[in-house]
Amino acid sequence: MHIVARTFDGPASCPDCELPSSRVHSCYQSRLADTPVGGLPVLIEPTVRRLYCDSGLCGRRTFVEQIAGLTFRYGTRTPASRHVLAVVAVALAGRAGARLAAALQTRVSRTTILRAIMAMPDPVWAVPRVLGVDDFATRRGHHYGTVLIDCETRQPLDLLPGRDASTLAGWLPEHPGAEIICRDRAGSYADGARTGAPNAVQVADGFHLWQNLGTAVEASLRLHSDCLKAAFSSPDGPASEGGDSDATKTMSPIEARIRERHATIHALLAQGHGIREIARELHMGGNTVRRNARASVPEQLLAGRRQPRASQLDPYKPHLDKLWAEGHTNAIQLHAELQNLGYRGSYQIISDYLRPRRRRRIRVVPPAPPGIRRVTGWMMRHPENLADGERRQFAAILAGCPELKALHARVRGFAEILQTRSGQHLKDWITATRTADLPRLHTFATGLEKDWDAVLQGLSTRWNSGPVEGRVNHIKMIKRQMFGRAKLPLLRKRVLLTAAANR
């Protein structure tokens, strides 16, 4: 759709001194892309005037009149088209955004999409009362950044390069007013918050406290790894969970299928279904259904199948069975033994005769003791969330090691403090932990005392770093959309703008 238009004659205001002027210098035709109409791209070609500025105090000699709501200086798109392009750029950057814009009849390059993102202003936000801070990876293992959010509104505020103390300490004085700072256990953020906002209350995140405890529990279990092996190597250790009988293990697939088919047919017969109806339902032949119906037990179907023929091995089978029962299972040695007795058959006949016996042999392998990571998971989980088999194995481990039993009691005590936010009992928990012979847990308790005020706030108040962790996942998603190629300025723009668009 092509629209040609011109402006009306009349005065226009200078953009610098705002003095009206009607003296025309010249006219020219511009080209503006607008939003599509009926699936058709729209091109507007307005003829606009260039006018003289009659003010002697203004430094501008000429200016171009602007059409309100349609044109702006150096613009080739209408405000409506720019808004559509900005929405596409925020949703999908790069080539994906260019393809979406092309589907909307707005053909642009991927660099135009990126320029549209960077040209958009940052969302306006007020200084938060509760500030959340955490690190994220721009390139894992090499480069990291810091994300700051408002924990009350969950709005991201800024993305900063680096994750050391100076990064946070430099940002806080420029944005004063934070009363509470939620952080992880990293010492850099603690020092940065203490330097940049000395009057703010620091809150150590409960999840990170629990994670630190899990590390201490795993280290303690490594010191008692022999207890795990002893619990499963003793005769009265936990039994294997496999309850299958030998008959089930040695049953061939054909026999299992015959038994299952027999049970299904007799169940349908008991419900009153006829032979033909069962044959249609099970997609079987009528004779097969009748044969199963006549057999009262599945053994009648198994008997008489594959009747063995006379073999050269028949006279030697009793002696061969005797040797097998005595533990001689090597077919080559058995073949040589029978040849000394006059056997003239081949080795393959003996091997075929012994093959079913080899399949029936059940190799009894004692269950492997659970690993340290698995036992750590059992100890850190609530006992009600353990399966029956896990609960039995865990009880056997605790029964064989008093130190691990004491460790489990300490873990459950800390979990109770964390769940009920009863930080006033933390001092008693540390005192009781000091009396136990658990050196790795003593190290954990020492770390709590070094960060006492923040830990106490984390175990007593409702504030935590959960919203910050969610925003870190949002950053990871945007990085994956851009295939990890986004530098920090572009990543920062997309994170702030997408969060503002979703509010």
What does this structure look like?
With 503 residues, the chain is α/β, with parallel strands linked by helices. 51% of the residues lie in helices and 14% in strands. The protein has 23 helices and twelve strands. The protein has helices at 79-91, 94-103, 110-119, 165-174, 187-196, 206-223, 225-233, 246-250, 253-270, 275-282, 286-294, 299-302, 317-325, 331-340, 347-360, 372-380, 388-399, 402-420, 426-435, 439-450, 452-458, 466-481, 488-501, and strands at 2-6, 12-13, 20-21, 24-29, 32-37, 40-52, 62-64, 130-139, 143-150, 155-161, 180-183, 201-204. Strands 1, 4, 5, 6 and 7 form a five-stranded mixed sheet that branches. Helix 1 packs across helix 3, helix 2 packs across helix 3 and helix 7 packs across helix 17 (388-399). The longest helix is centred in the C-terminal third of the chain and has 19 residues, at 402-420. The chain is flat and about 130 Å long. Residues 239-249 have low confidence and may be disordered.
Q: Short description, anyone?
A:
This protein is an alpha/beta fold and 503 residues long. The protein has 23 helices and 12 strands.
Summary tags:
12 strands; five-stranded mixed beta sheet; 503 residues; alpha/beta; flat
Number of helices: 23
Strand content: 5-15%
What is the helix content?
40-55%
Radius of gyration (CA) equals 40 Å
Structural shape: flat
Secondary structure class reads: alpha/beta
Arithmetic mean pLDDT: 86
Gap between N and C termini: 35 Å
Sequence stretches where pLDDT stays below 50 over 5 or more residues: 239-249
